[in-house]
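Shipment paperwork, digital attachment
Item: protein structure file
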Amino acid sequence: MVAESSEKNINVTLRVWRQAGPNQPGKFVEYQAKNCNPNMSFLEMLDVVNDNLVTQGEEPIAFAHDCREGICGTCNLVIDGKPHGPHKAIATCQTYMRSFADGAVITVEPFRAKPFPVIKDLITDRSAFDKIQQAGGFISVRTGAGADANATPISKDNADLAMDAAQCIGCGACVAACKNASAMLFVAAKVSQFSLLPQGQPERDRRVLAMVAKMDELGFGSCTNQYECSAACPKLISHDFIARMNRDYIKATIRQTFKPKSNAVAGGA
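Attachment content:
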């Protein structure tokens, strides 16, 4: 005999941001989500709501998703004013309906930032992050067989810090949480994961200067060290990486300013 679950299904009211397109006005629309299994994820609940809307001949709610395992960073929703929802260290897809009380009214919005324009409903264009990454988030090395793991000694402290920075999934929660829409935590993580390793040293100065310049060009705000970014990050990327990047940026700027200029080749005697 299978024991019945003691958890009862819940009913919630959703206040969802609906916007037909990038240049269209938007508004909140209420939907009822009834008999939600408390063990279903927030995205599964939206799937059920959308199935009902389609059955009724209405336009389903557009939202982004992919892996649904907290890996890809695609599911970027603001739930009751918090990027990714009420809990720490998880993405929207890892938020479950048991996190909400029966009869709760839940407000669902897209990530709000000028560099993240709304495409439709809850989907935003976060290609600005791709442009920052393309500006310098890579190393220029020969391709081919992977180097032996012990060929380049790396201290455990630096290896651990580099791995911590590399956990960033580029979801944009740091930008959505920041009152200035700053992308400093994202950029700091991408800069630091290379600056801590030997493979990232040849392009270290060029990388930090290029990525910060691209961030500013795209319209992200400045950092005022309120640390909402690290609090909202689903991977708990530390704001200490911002200080590390700032030091790299200052050193790179000084070296660039005082870099000796090559003498012009003199003409024939």
